[in-house]
Amino acid sequence: MSANTFEEARAILDKLIAFPTISSDSNVALVDYVVDYLEQIGARVFLQPSECGEKANLFATIGPEGDGGIVLSGHTDVVPVEGQDWVSDPFKMFEKDGRLYGRGTCDMKGFLACSMAMAREVSTQSLVRPLHLAFTYDEEVGCFGAKALMEELARRNIKPSVAIIGEPTQMRVIEGHKGCYEYTTNFIGLEGHGSQPDLGVNAIQYASKFINHLVELGEKLKARAPQDGRFDPPWSTIQVGKISGGAGRNIIAGTCSVEWEMRPVQPSDATLVKKSLDAFFDRELLPQMKAVSAFASAETVVVGEIEGLQVVAQSEAREIVYKVTGANGADVVAFGTEAGLFQEAGMSAVICGPGSIEQAHKPNEFIEIDQLRNCVEMLSQLRARLI
Ligand SMILES: [Zn+2]
């Protein structure tokens, strides 16, 4: 590894941290800086603006055109700092005791900075395999940027074969995580006096039938746990996190909403749940509700559906990252990332990045300087696979 590349990564990180790219805000200023940087070193860059126009994905290529490239990917957005007890300005990076502090240092601008420094290092060489950088928006609120980017890559017929997603894993190789699907199901009933329940449609009572059905499905999923499952727990889970509805004890509840999530270990479990719910609504709940009021309804809103990363027997991404990190085993983790989307788009995907998820989303977020160094080292090793 060249010491210069590490110093370069650190200097870039300092700049990236200074852009307060909280998911609710624009990331355009950061993206403009990255475009400038990458174009100066000869990368071919395109931006994909979000629908609102205030955010953008960035995709860059160095080396030959064509399929089979290696993608280094990360998200540009960070979680909010409001209400957190920061000892310093979260958007001004500073060093103390071998750590670099600032919002996004570990989740995950550290990896972005290392990728950019590595891109500079390889830009003067003649590559036989394309290197791509994919920087996305809105990961923290549902991976919306990465979803759009996968569609754009398909439209442009760009087919990389390997994706390394640099979420903080302390440079461990992560080959799988569960999906994370989040929903709100809204029930609209018919209000009425509490003494005449049959004349109204009680949204809370229908919501509770729905919740019972979810609980039953949760039990079914346990029995479907894959034999060699390594997740904890090894089955797909369903969980209701919040319900709200009704106006008072003696009024038939006119509305109720149920916020729930499902974490599938395999796509077929999610399909099973969706089919079962559709049938339950169509055959039982809705006919019962509408028999009293044609205006009664029950509808599920998708908050976000983050695909799981499936563990696969043959994985080029895993093999490459084993070689460049010296690792000889891979783990699975409980948190969701964009990696499942890259896999779904046809790439071999693995997660490996600097810093610890322990520090992510917390006040006084930091990354160990050694972690940054290890990441630069890994990417320098990766260079040998491109030339
Ligand atoms: Zn992250």
Would you summarize the structure shown here?
By secondary structure, the chain is of the alpha/beta class. 35% of the residues lie in helices and 22% in strands.
Features:
single chain, 387 residues, alpha/beta, Aminopeptidase, Alpha-Beta Plaits, 2 domains, 6-stranded mixed sheet, 9 helices, 35% helix, binds zinc ion, zinc, cobalt, ArgE/DapE_CS, amino-acid biosynthesis, Peptidase_M20_dimer
Mind explaining what this structure looks like?
Belongs to the peptidase M20A family. ArgE subfamily. Residues 176-286 form the Peptidase M20 dimerisation domain. One of its GO terms (molecular function) is acetylornithine deacetylase activity. With 387 residues, the protein is of the alpha/beta class. The protein folds into two domains: 3-177 and 309-383, Zn peptidases (Aminopeptidase, 3-Layer(aba) Sandwich), CATH 3.40.630; 180-306, Alpha-Beta Plaits (2-Layer Sandwich). 35% of the residues lie in helices and 22% in strands. It contains nine helices and 15 strands. It has helices at residues 3-17, 28-40, 105-122, 144-155, 203-223, 267-292, 316-325, 339-344, 369-383, and strands spanning 44-49, 56-62, 70-75, 94-96, 99-101, 131-136, 162-165, 174-177, 180-188, 237-245, 255-263, 297-306, 331-333, 348-351, 366-368. It is elongated and about 80 Å long. The model has no long low-confidence stretch (mean pLDDT 95). It binds zinc ion. Zinc ion (ZN) binds next to helix 3. Zinc ion is lined by residues 75, 107-108, 139, 167.
